[in-house]
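Notebook, student rotation project (T.W.).
Task set for the rotation: take a protein with a known small-molecule partner, predict the structure of the complex, and write up what can be learned from the model alone. Partner molecule chosen: magnesium ion. Sequence and SMILES entered below by T.W., checked by me.
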Amino acid sequence: MKVSDVVEKLGLKVLSGAKGLDLEVTGCYVSDLLSDVMGKADAGQIWITLQTHRNVMAIASLKDLAAVILVSDLLPEDDTAKQSEEENIPVLGTHLPTFEIAGKLYALLTK
Amino acid sequence: MHFTYNVEGGNFTRAGYASSEIKKILKQLNVDLAIIKRTVVASYEAEVNIVAHAYSGTIFVDITPETILIKFVDEGPGIPDIAMAMKEGFSTATSKVREMGFGAGMGLPNIRKNVDNMNITSEVGKGTVLELTMYLQ
Ligand SMILES: Nc1ncnc2c1ncn2[C@@H]1O[C@H](COP(=O)(O)OP(=O)(O)O)[C@@H](O)[C@H]1O
Ligand SMILES: [Mg+2]
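Predicted structure of the complex:
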């Protein structure tokens, strides 16, 4: 499944980094602790978080993540969006809180 | 091959820049992907520790066919009790830093888990030296 499929099926907004929508999704990791993501997330995963600052993109890039989903209508900070464009890693948005969007993505990826 | 990077204490917008450069170099050298991944985790955590806990620092990278050596030298408050600092969950990070999702006290444990060898020395009031080694063969 591609990031674009996830966007379409879960009704996500593409907030930045649309050039990365073709990236292949291998799974998902949910955490707001950066060291936790650094230590445990894997390449190709979508990261669900409420953190909106630029370090999120630094980690997404270092870990080769497929995309970041910001929950509860949060928006990326300007330099976060900029780095997402530069790295071609999409930042996606949803009005749903973490539990609900994670549940939906889990259902989609394990179907 | 030698590379050097400067790290500014307190400047979180640039945190991860040096680690990203190191990752690019290792990729260009066709280093085994599993080793790159482990190196990147350790390097990022050590870089962020300079940003979060020290005033300034320098990263020295030395790559040979046998090893990747990365030395993080900082000027900062130093670590009074290294054994305590190594413990999962121990952190002196400020609440502002914690709100950003840093300061979970998982950095040094993450480093230990991912490198082949780590050596840390510190002098209170002066700074900290962290040496990481990855074996390529
Ligand atoms: N370079 C450093 N200079 C001074 N103190 C440090 C340094 N690196 C780590 N420490 C100390 O060790 C603690 C644990 O580090 P770490 O495991 O990375 O957790 P965290 O950075 O989340 O606090 C830090 O909170 C800090 O007190
Ligand atoms: Mg740390």
